[in-house]
Each structure stands twice: as C-alpha cells, then as structure tokens.
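seq:
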Amino acid sequence: MHAPERSLPATHAARLIMVLSLTPTIGLGIGRFAYSLVLPDMRDSLGWSYSAAGFMNTINAAGYLAGALIASALVKRFGLSAVVRWGTVAAVASLALCALSGNFVVLSFARLLAGVGAAVGFVASGALAATIAQSKPERANFLLSLFYAGPGSGILLSGLIAPFTLQAFGPGSWWIVWWAMTLLAAIMILPLLLTRFGANAEIADPTPVRFAIRPALIYLAGYFLFGAGYIAYMTFMIAYVRDAGGGAPAQSAFWCLIGLSAFATPWIWRRVLALDRGGRSTAIILAVNAVGAALPLFGHSVVLLAISALVFGVSFFAVVGSTTAFVRFNYPHAAWPTAIAALTISFGIGQTLGPVVTGAITDAFGNLSYALNAGAAMLAMGAVLAAFQGRLVNSE
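struct:
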C-alpha cells in the first residue's frame, strides 16, 4: 500500500478538485435538490398528496442507498475515475427522463436512477478528492471544502432558472424545467468527461478494506439523523415559502441564498474542521445546521427566511465535508472508499426514511410546520451524538 503522491502543484490540485465537485453539483445540487423547486407545480398538476411528493425523494434516497452499497465494488473493478464519470452520466440521463413523462412509475424510476448515479459518483469522487487533497496535507481541509461547496453551484443555477421558467410558462410547465436542468447538467459534465485525473490520483490498492462499525457507531448514528433531518427542509421549504405567499422571485432568492452560502464554506469552517479528529467538528457544524432549519418556524418574515437559508446552506455542505475529514484522519488510505461508502449508507438510510415520514406528518396535520419541526429536532439530536465520537486509531 503506497501513500498518496505529493507532487501535485497546489493550483493543479485545486483545479482537479473543483472539476470533481461537478459530480455532486450535478447529482445532488441539480439531480436531487432541483426537485424541490418543481415539487409544488408537479403536485398541483399531477394531483399528488404530500406523501406521494415525499415518496419521490424517498425513492431517490433509496437509489442513493443502493448506489452507496455497490460503490466500493465498482471502484475495485473499474477504478475511481471511471466510476465518477459513469455515475454522473447516469444522473444526467435521469434528468432527461424526468422531462419525458408525468407517469408516476416512470418518474419514480428516474428518481431512483438519479439516486444511484449520485451516490456512486459521490463515493468515488469523494475518495478521489480526498486522495488529491492529501497531496497537499497543509491545505487538505481547504481543498476538500472546495469539493463540498460544489453542489452550491447547482442549487444556485437551478434557483435562478426553475422559478422563473415556471412563472413564464405557467401551471403545468414542470417538464420544461426538467429539460432546462438536463441542458444545464449536460454542459456542466463536459469538464468532468474531458479531464484526466492521472494514475497518481487513484488509490494504489483499490481492494475494499473491511469497515469496523462499532468504533464509529455513534458517529454513524449522528450522520443517519442528519440524513433524516435535512431532507425535510430541502424537500418542502420551497412549498413553505410559496404557501406563505412567496412568488417566483421569493422562491428563487431563497434557493439562491442556500447555494451562495455554500461558497463561503471553505473559509468559515476551516478552523472548526481543524479542532479535532473525532466528531466535535461535525457536532458544531450540525448544531448550526439545526438552528438554520428551525428559524422558519418562528415566522414568515423575509429577513428570517433569508437568515435561515444562509445559516442552513453554509453549514449543510460543511457537515458532509466534515465526514470526509473524519475518514481522512481516522482510516488508512486504502480504506477511504469503503469508509466513505459506509457513511453514505448511514446517511442514505436516514434520507430514505425522512421524506416519506415528513410527508405523512404533513398530510396528517395539514401543515408543513410539523414536518420542519421534526427535521430540525433530528438535526439537533445528530449534533449531540456526533459530539461524543472520539478519535479512532489510524492503522496506516
């Protein structure tokens, strides 16, 4: 087992990681989260209940979970770079499929495919980004933050496009938004397909290393709660803003603030990520995320919603980034794909259960506030659990 090579210039490492960030930008920033922007129009046009609307994110999360389960085996067989590319291609194809039909089964399959592609691409690109970042150990946390800020681009661009497309074409134009998202993703995938990451960016021995669950069990439980809790906010907040009287400009501004805040992530959390090698950094960031998720419950004012979007966005992407830092600090290099996959599986189970449960809560009580309350509470509990995770023994 060879250590990562350390010959990449800092600017080249940053460029490669920013190209890699296009994978979660497409798979997550657009593939998963743009659904929230078209959800209200799809629900009205297709006659869905909140449970049915939540199911679409549940099936997407189930696909994400399935992708996380097979990711390490795919990396072993095909290598990190190939898995990154094919996972992202699958995510782009799923967007086109969403535009082709209003059939519930077809849309469910499209959302399932989006989840599989996003997870496979995320696990591989996360391991590849961590490997490249390790070539510059003194800047590794900052470089990884660049990777995890990537989805903000997808959220920002979809927030600028989707609400105004719906406004321009009127009720029932959700499928036009999906075509716009497909075009956007097709453009963004080009640098990813054309960039060569080099043999030194691959893990020398890609054989999956056995992941010991017990030492990191409390951390996995906290990450599970993050997966279950954040999804209520990201699924239903646009509907919440619309129900409060917010039109296309308000919806766009809210979504764009979440995306924009992600770009501040590398600078805001750099010192926090360096605090320790256990779960304390994740706990702090997750606690801030819970505060951001809870703020809309105190009113519908523009200022409150704007602060909520900024606080949630700047911490949301950092939580995911902190987990890769945890893996990088606590596991040998060859174990990174397996460890990231294990965390992604825990997260995936949480976000699989989250949408359908919060949708059912909303249907039962007739008010989105209850679902958002439940989501914020789960995020807070996740922060408490992560705080008790100590540093593991790195066996490398």
